[in-house]
């Protein structure tokens, strides 16, 4: 049963990584801005003339395209591995509902942390109340003891 929970949590995390990769690859100019700020911090602001500033801009004009393609590849790879782990979670869990709810909760929490880490997003109190209710339901689902299977019914002969 522990294996099912482990695979479900991994599947949720990989789903969140895939979503973040999609946002990076299809986002308007986020990667271009990251490229420009990364080049500025790598080269340093001291001593940069106007000519070198233009070189940075032209480098990031084309460099964001391979970065977007890389994020697109990461999107498809994470989705494929996520579905593999979700299938394993279904196989090792005692119920499909348990695997599905665990994966969903892991995805929500991972998406919140990745969104804050990568994009600087914040969530309203209502969002946190909702995720707390989801996690409470998950706790109830995991703490419930599975029912024993009913004994097979014996047909009475007439």
From TrEMBL:
Signal sequence region: 1-22
Organism of derivation: Erpetoichthys calabaricus
PANTHER family in the record: TRANSMEMBRANE PROTEIN 42
InterPro entries xrefs: EmrE-like, TMEM42
Lineage: Eukaryota, Metazoa, Chordata, Craniata, Vertebrata
Protein name listed in UniProt: Transmembrane protein 42a
Keywords: Membrane, Signal, Transmembrane, Transmembrane helix
Membrane-crossing residue ranges in chain numbering: 65-87, 99-119, 125-145
């Amino acid at each position: 049963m522990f294996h099912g929970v482990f695979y479900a949590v991994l599947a949720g995390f990989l789903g969140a990584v895939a979503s973040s990769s999609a946002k990076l690859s299809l986002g308007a100019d986020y990667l271009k801005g990251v490229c420009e700020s990364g080049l500025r911090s790598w080269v340093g602001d001291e001593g940069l003339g106007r000519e070198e500033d233009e070189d940075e801009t032209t480098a990031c004009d084309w460099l964001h395209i391979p970065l977007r393609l890389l994020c697109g590849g990461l999107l498809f790879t994470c989705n494929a591995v996520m579905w593999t782990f979700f299938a394993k979670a279904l196989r090792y869990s005692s119920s499909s509902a348990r695997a599905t709810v665990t994966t969903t909760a892991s995805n929500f929490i991972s998406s919140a942390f990745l969104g804050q880490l990568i994009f600087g997003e914040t969530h309203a109190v209502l969002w946190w109340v909702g995720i707390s209710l989801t996690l409470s339901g998950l706790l109830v689902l995991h703490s419930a003891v599975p029912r024993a299977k009913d004994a097979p019914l014996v047909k009475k002969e007439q």
